[in-house]
Design brief:
The protein has helices at about 5-10, 15-45, 55-100, 105-110, 115-135, 135-155, 160-180, 180-205, 210-215, 220-250, 255-265, 275-295, 295-315, 375-380, 405-410, 425-430, 435-445, 450-455, 470-485, 500-515, 550-555, 560-570, 570-579, and strands at about 335-345, 345-355, 360-365, 390-395, 395, 410-415, 490-495, 520-525, 535-540, 545-550. By secondary structure, it is an alpha/beta fold. Strands 6-7-8-3-9-10 form a six-stranded mixed beta sheet, sandwiched between helices. Strands 2-1-4-5 form a four-stranded antiparallel beta sheet, with helices on one face. The radius of gyration is 35 Å and the shape is elongated.
């Protein structure tokens, strides 16, 4: 059990009883699998001395039948138990991961990368399958079948049995050597190169437009480097371990074992071995070699499962955002940040932020890219906690509000909007599952999405990605409809119209200003024309608020807001805006 490591043992602890039962059943099956082979050897010797229907011959036939039945029945039940454990373990792990991941800070996902969650939820969980579903039975076969077979062969002919044991011992030692620390670094480098290759292939597939525009550079170049790195690492691993692995396969292969048994029978000093006894040795030696041959893949599965278990346990041990012991409810729809600072991987993102959003008002957050606008909105939604200062929603620190209640108090529209594999109606009603079809359609109409949906054959019953694929702008409009339908008194909108055309943008601006009247709105915007009517505009630069006021006030003074406006607007529009 020490081979499993503490992390893997912890994951398997709830299933120990079923795994031990599977081991016991496989032990019965393993011993029983030898009975037909022994019976065949004895039958070959008995048939030339007695008629086919003699009791001695029939007894060996019945032994072969009984052994086959016990072998098949025991192994079937053992594999059923191990695969049932595997299904329950993997399903439980994925549920635990889903529950844990939704409570982790957003910064954890940023550090992990785009494919990180997939690696945990799919690759690492799937790596446990071979170990849990097959390793217990394989391990029993590896330990029990060679020992039982050796005992029978020693009883039959001890010298020939010891001679036949030599290639099996050499094969086992060779596999043990391949699984030792001597080759471990090469295996780890090979696996790391494989992971990097998969990650770069994923980026390549997700950015084919850039690949076509800039062949030989950027993503394409990284993929080529990853392929070369994998080729080097794999070739190095094969050059070190491949010769030994190939030699083991030859030594434990059927032709070599046949020749080895015949050679042993012909050696001087060996007792005379009959054809029937030689047949039994050949059959049983091959049965001994099969579990030894499985050691190669078994060691790879064991090392892979141990590494996956370590990563999964480390993930499940990552502290989530803490829930308050005595949750408080927001008292109104105000938002306030008091001297807030936040850093990502020790790099400051926001510093000394002070702001207040009065209930029912619209506040715009503008500034150059990388100024920290989306991070500020994420702190209000408590995607992560501040390093210092306070974020208050409804007059209560967000750390003192239960996550579920905070989610119900906020409606979010993110720049990279998404949709679940549900019907369009269900997607719009995510914040408000009890909404009527008329209410859902009204929200979609306000978000300029109703005509697009009604043109589909299944209309609002269309399943996303199965019946309809939505563009980036349509996904944004879907998110806006979802927010408008919600009863949340606070709306956080991060570039809500960045992927829409000017005409649709104007209609959505009207919906957000009029359809969401009475709600507190924070709009992160790049295009300043969309937020010129906001009651309060905050200008963020290098993580600090450098200006605040209304549109006309900010245009009237030299500053970053006026500079950004002049960069976006023709001079005629500028003159109209200040007149």
């Amino acid at each position: 059990m020490n081979l499993l490591g503490p992390e893997l043992r912890a994951l398997l602890r709830p299933f120990r009883a079923r795994l031990w039962l599977a081991v016991a059943l496989q032990a019965v099956a393993g011993i029983s699998s030898l009975l037909p082979l022994i019976a065949l050897g004895q039958l070959a010797d008995s048939l030339h001395r007695a008629p086919p229907l003699a009791p001695a011959v029939a007894g060996w036939v019945w032994l072969a039948v009984l052994g086959s039945a016990l072998w098949l029945g025991g192994q079937t039940l053992a594999l059923y138990l191990t695969h049932d454990v595997d299904a329950n373990l993997c399903n439980g792990l994925r549920v635990r991961l889903a529950e844990h991941l939704q409570r982790l800070p957003l910064g954890w996902f940023a550090r992990l990368g785009a494919d990180g969650v997939t690696r945990y939820a799919e690759q690492d969980v799937r790596a446990l399958h071979q170990l849990v579903g097959h390793a217990p039975t394989d391990l029993v076969n590896l330990l029990l079948i060679p020992l039982a077979t050796l005992a029978y062969l020693l009883w039959s002919d001890s010298l020939l049995a010891l001679w036949c044991l030599l290639p099996l011992a050499l094969g086992a030692l060779g596999y043990w050597r391949l699984g030792s620390a001597h080759y471990r670094e090469d295996v780890e480098q090979r696996n790391l190169a494989i992971q990097q290759l998969f990650g770069d292939y994923s980026q390549f597939a997700g950015n084919l437009g850039l690949v076509r525009q800039f062949p030989g550079a950027g993503i394409h170049q990284r993929l080529q480097q990853a392929v070369q790195r994998f080729d080097q690492r794999f070739s190095h691993w094969v050059s070190r371990a491949g010769h030994l692995a190939a030699l083991i396969q030859v030594v434990l292969g059927a032709p070599w074992l046949l020749a080895w048994v015949v050679l042993g029978a012909l050696l001087p000093g060996m007792a005379e071995v009959g054809a029937a006894q030689l047949c039994a040795f050949l059959l049983l030696l091959r049965a001994m070699a099969a579990p030894v041959l499985a050691m190669g893949h078994g060691f790879d599965a064991l090392h892979g499962a141990r590494a996956s278990a370590q990563r999964l346990q480390a993930l499940l041990s990552t502290p989530p955002l803490p829930e308050p012991a005595a949750p408080q409810a927001p008292r109104d729809a105000s938002v306030e940040l008091r001297n807030v600072s936040f850093a990502h991987d020790a790099v400051p993102v926001l510093s000394a932020i002070d702001l207040r959003l009065e209930p029912g008002t619209t506040t715009a957050l503008v500034g150059p890219s990388g100024a920290g606008k989306s991070t500020l909105a994420g702190l209000i939604a408590r995607f992560m906690d501040v390093d210092s200062g306070q974020v208050l929603v409804g007059g209560v620190d967000v750390r003192q509000i239960a996550s579920r209640q905070l989610q119900q108090h906020l409606a979010l529209v993110l720049q990279q909007a998404g949709a679940l594999r549900l019907s369009l109606a269900q997607n719009i009603a995510l914040y408000r599952p009890d909404a009527s079809p008329a209410q859902i359609r009204q929200a979609a109409r306000a978000a300029c999405l109703d005509s697009r949906i009604m043109a589909l054959p299944k209309a609002y019953a269309s399943i996303v990605d199965d019946d309809v694929r939505l563009s980036g702008g349509e996904l944004q409009r879907l998110a806006i409809a979802r927010a408008l339908l919600s009863a949340a008194p606070i709306m956080l909108l991060d570039e809500p119209t960045s992927a829409t055309d000017p005409q649709t943008e104007r209609a959505l601006r009207t919906a957000l200003w009029q359809g969401a009247a009475g709600r507190t709105r924070l709009i992160v915007a790049h295009r300043l024309a969309t937020i010129r009517h906001a009651e309060q505009i905050l200008v963020l630069c290098d993580g600090r608020i450098v200006q605040r006021g209304q549109h006309q006030e900010l245009l009237a003074v030299e500053g970053l807001y006026r500079q950004l406006w002049l960069e976006q607007m023709p001079s005629t529009d500028y003159l109209e805006s200040v007149s």
